[in-house]
Protein: 4741_t:CDS:1
Amino acid sequence: MADIPDFLNDTSLLLPNSPISIPSDSSTLVIRETISNAYRTIAEKIGPHNENLDSEPFFSKKTTTALTDLGGPATVYAVLYTGKLFTKREDKVSNSRARGCWVLAGNVLELLLERREAGVSEREVLWEALLKPWKIDSIEKSALDIATRAEARHFLVLPSVQSFVQALWKTGRKISDPMLVDSPLSTRKAKFKRITEIITTPRFQNTTTVIMNFAFLALYTYVVNCTDYKSGAPNISEWSLYLWAFGFLIQEFKKMRDMKSIYFRIPSSYITLSFPSILFFAFIARAFNVTFSGPMFLEFDLLSLTSLLLYANTIIWLDSNRACGKTVIVFNAIMSRSLWFLPLILAVTIGTGQAIWSAEKGGAAVESVLILSTLSSSFTGRLLIAYTVIATLLLVSLLIASFSACYYQLVPSLEAEYALYFTRKATGLFHSVYVFPPPSNVMQVIIRKVSQHVLRKRNSIVWIEHMMWWIMFAAFVICVVSWEIVLKMIGPVKRAMAKSYTKLRTWIHCSPQSSSFYPPSSTHFSSFLQIEHLKDAIEPEERALNRDLQLGKIVDTLLRIETKLHEFDSRIETLERLSQERHLSLDTKLTSLESVSRIQHGTLTHVNQMQVDTVGAVTKVEKTIVERLNKVEDTQIEGIKKLEYKQLEIEKKIRETLPKMMEKEVEVEKRLDMVEHVVVRHDIDNETVDWFGRAM
Structure:
């Protein structure tokens, strides 16, 4: 094995114009010899001009057994590498031979699984054949890496390969030791190892990436809609947005480096690369604006343009799901096969623009012309409507037809395309050195570069990188949380102090001693208050100009004064607009008051008339009451006179009967005296007295 065979230095290897160039490094002798033997076997079976790869000699059991006996699991890598070398020549024969290599690698893998020993699991054989790294051209690669780079769809769609990729997606680096038994978490080192195994799995990395991407979408929506980013310096949320954009750029550059040959052939890559690039240019425009106090139009347009790409990118973030992944594959295929549609859209857009320009030559906008319905009476208007309708129908029909044709061409091979897409994603996350998604990968890149300059040993670099990353991440979280808490605590205090200060100034300026310094107009009173407030704010800056003679401080002070003057101009404009609105509101109020006064005058006259009518009615009622009272008094007087007359008559009768009664009483007394005398004298008993009494 120490001597390199002569055929390894031969670049033809039994085939004319062979694309094979075997590396001459003696450290890779075993794998180079296996590749050469595999290529020789394939060349002998296929022949120099044989395009029929479905023939029995090529896919026979004997050929598969011969290749399997060459080097075991290394043969799978060798056959896949040979097929990758065939793909470098873009001719029909080489492409058919490459497809034959994919099928042959699958047959070799199946035979290896059949030949495994009793104590060896299928996972171990697959790891040795698919994921074990082989050093070629000073780069360690595995069979899965070669298969994804060469787009070996026939090989990747095998059930054994797909089950292994799914296990790789779920378990991550634990797949390198399939017989590993989960040890109890008794020590801190074991716990740290378990946590590291979990966070380095491709599924965990993808889940955290999706969550952080949707958090970035929420942050972008908050910054664009709820933050006053058009005036003043950027706040912490806007800086976080730009830091996130840098993380996305780093992630896309890493993908670009890993997939050099196919990155720009995937249409979805332009979407994932465009929105962080636009945000990066928005950050540059924002920095220029804060530095030189320029206009805000550029970053506003860039942030608005990002929204469409950002919302369209959400389905690409969910490509690990089978349905979303197939949707992304169909989108990429349709967009790559429908590029002829872009010149049509450009031509229709230019034609519509020319038609609109010709319709607007008269001085009226197209919107007003359409609203006033004057297009129907002119030839230009009818032409514009007809052109727009026909062009829209034609473009929509062509687009639907193109998309349908591309979709039906892709449906038979959609499973193979998804197997390639998912395997590429799983292996990319498995080999990724950036465990955490943006924006944390920015800090990880910085820490990694610093660690490489500090220490050259790999173990020390990795240890320092992990420790510094956790320290930086914890410090970042603490700073953000504390800053938000401080802002929430200081904000109400500042607002209360500003409110009390404005109340004090209005009380001072409204006092009689200071009323002579201000004009009597009440509409511009608030504007003068704002002017005085700005003057008081500018006075410290003027004193600083007198104190500081250095050029840098003078320039900074002038810039601050200029910004405050801009604010003063904007406030004056707002005050003028408010005064105009107040004048308009006063006019409307005066008209409403006049109408109300007219209504009140009418109601008052009506009330006066009603009062006169009621007074007349009351006088009539009083007259009738007085008459009735007089009548009642007359009747009462007559009744009193009658009663007095009757009383006199009664008194006369009493006077007449009184002497008679006196006489009767005298007679009775005489009789009683006589009776008492008889009783005493004759002792009349009680019975006779009783009888006498009853007789009396």
Observations:
- DSSP finds 24 helices and two strands in the chain.
